[in-house]
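=== Structural record ===
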Amino acid sequence: MPRSYDSLTLEDAKRMLAAAEARAASLGIAYNIAVVDAGGHLVAFVRQDDALIGSIDLAIDKAVTARIFDKTTSDLAGLAQSGKPLFGIQESNAGKVVIFGGGIPVMFDGRIVGAVGASAGTVEQDIAVAEAAIAALGRLPQSSSRSRSSQEGSKRSTQ
């Protein structure tokens, strides 16, 4: 029997990108920003004019990493240090796992519905840009509460 799940919509992603772009502009840095759905697939991406070319894949991979491990990439960074439980995790998934800040899962009703990744500035700036994207949905990063219905702002899909 097919299972249903909530996921970010294109409308959600566009709202997230607009907020993230505004935060990037306030920092004076051209950014690459990616939003993935509950399955970890790219929904929307923006590369602002003059954003670093090398940060394109980093933004996308940060979003995917946050979704496939259901943790912020900054949390993974701490867990991936020598002697820690996830040491070497960045070598998994064909080396596409990113273990520095800027990737954050998006949660509604305690369930992950996607993730955002931002890359171009310092780790702290990348996190701030990603957090701005999530705030556009009326959520704090990794929030488990949701004030709107489970259908509004996310879609129900079957797999």
